[in-house]
Amino acid sequence: MIRKNRKLSAGNAKPGDIVIVNGLLGDHGAAILAARGDMALDVPVESDCASLNGLIETLLDVCPEISFIRDATRGGIATVLNEIAEASGVSIEIEEDKTPLRRQVKGFCEILGLDPLYLANEGKIVIVVPAGKSQLVLNTLLAHPLGLASSAVGKVGDWDAGRVTMLTSFGGRRIVDMLVGEQLPRIC
């Protein structure tokens, strides 16, 4: 249970904070798209639907300094990060190599020309925490069944307010914009 006066707003991120996710991203979106049967693609991925209240309660008990926590449902992690950057007036940079994606989801997205950062998640949260508390949060997540693939995916900065970028595996940077339209029809 979240305390009444607890503020976990998207406007709370500060330069130096760390962005953490609690596991593999995009499974739900890929599973739903594949299950619709519009394509002859077999994707061995299941939805990540999970009740997150117990995990969130544990995290907030262990680390009251968490400044933001939210599920990454519609619009995926990309949309959540853009909302944080805009509301807080900060920039966020994530690293492709630290962003947990199942190989099958990556391949599925490559075939369809989708960006997995925008795929819906039903059992994933995005957490923003001061750098000095990030290891505590990661250790707590990794000890929980819903956090076994958790990762610190990026950091908050002040170099370009409102902008989200990704440091690619090749050392380049790309802009991660707010989703325009919808990658998948809303079904839930």
TrEMBL record:
Tell me, which GO biological process terms does this entry list?
Answer: protein maturation
Quote the InterPro entries the UniProt record gives. Answer: HypE, PurM-like_C_dom, PurM-like_C_sf
Matches recorded under Pfam families: AIRS_C
SUPFAM superfamilies, from UniProt?
PurM C-terminal domain-like
Q: Which positions fall inside the PurM-like C-terminal domain?
A: 14-163
Please report the name of this protein according to its UniProt entry.
[NiFe] hydrogenase metallocenter assembly protein HypE
Q: Which organism is it from?
A: hydrothermal vent metagenome
